[in-house]
Amino acid sequence: MDRPGPAFVVELDVFRGWAAVLMVVNHAGYALLSPANAHAGASGLAVFLGSFAPVLFFFATGFGIGLRPVGQPPPSLFETAWKAALLVAADQAMYWRGGAMFGFDFFSFIGVASMLVALLARSRWPIRLSLGLVVAILVVRYAVGPFARAWLPEQGLLDWLTGLRGQSGVSYPFAPWMAYPLIGFVLGRLYVARDKAAPQRQWLLAGAAVGVASLALAAAMVWMGAGLFRWGSMSSAFFVLSLGVLAGFALLSVATARSTSAGRLLALRGVASFAVIPIHYALLGLAERLDLPLPPYAFVVAVLALIVVSWIGAGALARFAQGPWLTRHRRLALPALVGLLAVLLVVTAAGPHGPSAGMTSASFGAQLSIACLLGLRAKRRASPSG
After folding, report:
1. Which tens digit of pLDDT belongs to each residue from 327-338?
2. 274 CB contacts (<8 Å, ≥6 apart)?
3. What is the DSSP string of 348-377?
4. Which of 2, 42, 238, 356 is the 20 to 30 A CA-CA neighbour of 137?
5. Which of 127, 161, 130, 129 is nearest to 144 (CA)?
C-alpha cells in the first residue's frame, strides 16, 4: 500500500511483488486445481507457500510507514483514516455481493494496521511501544491464551483481540496478525536510522540467521506433532515458520532488485499493489469457466498468465490513477469518484446477491474506484502545493 513521504526502497516494492505472486498462486490453486493437487505434491506445496502472502503484505505495510526519516512529521491521521475507510469499503464490496452484512478481511486489516502504526509513529517511544505490543500479542495468543480459553467468554471483540477462536466473517484476528506490521514498522525505522556507511551485508546475514533459525524451529515443532494452519486461529508452528518465510523473501527481494530488469517487472508500488488484488480476482472468475480442474502443468501456465495480465492491468490503472489527467481535474474527479463508489456499494448491498455478472461487475467497479481514490490522495501528498 502507498506510504506518505518516506524514503524510497526499491526492495520493498519487489517484496510486495513477491507477496502478490504468492497470493495469485494460493488463490489460483484453490480455484483451478483439484482438491488432491491443491493439497499434495509440488502443486500443493506451492499453494501452501502462497498462504504466507498476507504475512508479507502486512509486514510491508508496517515497513513502509517506518521508512519515514526520523525528524519528518509522522503520517497524517486524516490521510491514514481516509485510506483505512477506503480499504474497509473495498472489503465490503466483496462481502455485500454475497449477502453478508459485514466482513473483516485483508483490506480491512491493512486499514486497521495502518491506523495503529500511524498512531504509534506519533508517540514518544514508537519502537519501544511497538516491540512491547508484539510481545503482548504473542504472550496472549500463545502463552496465556491457550490456558485461559476454557473460561474466557465467547465474545466477538475479545475473540478478535486474542485470536483464540475463529469467527465467521473475520479472516485476520488482531493476535497474532498485528505482530507483522509492528515488526515491519520497527525494522523500517531501524533501516532508516542505520549507519549509511554500514555494509548491507550485516542486514543480509541477520535475515539469513533469522530464516534458518525459524525454519529449524518450525520443523522441530512439526516433528513433535504441531500443526501448520492459519485459518481462523493461527498455530504457533505456522507463526514461527512465517518468520522464516519473511526472512527468505526479504533476501530474495534484495537479490531480485539487484537485477534491474527482473526487479522492474516484479515490483508493485502504491496503487498497483492494491489494484493487483481485485484484478487477479476478476481474472480468476473468468478462468473458472475453463475445463476444471486443471492438471498441474496447465496450472503453471495459467498462473503465469494470471501474473502477467494482473501486473499489466495493475500498472495501467496505477498510471491512470496517479497520472496528470486525474490530477489536473482533481476537484471534479474526487467527488465524482466518491459518488460512483457510493452508487456501486449500494448496488452490491441491495442487488440480487450471488455470483451474477452484474453483481461481480459492481463489486469490481467499486474496488477500481477505490484504487483511483487512493491514487488521487497519494498524488496530492506528493504535490509540492498539496
Report:
1. 888 899 999 999
2. 1, 2, 90, 370, 371, 374
3. HHHS--SS-HHHHHHHHHHHHHHHHHHHHH
4. 2
5. 161
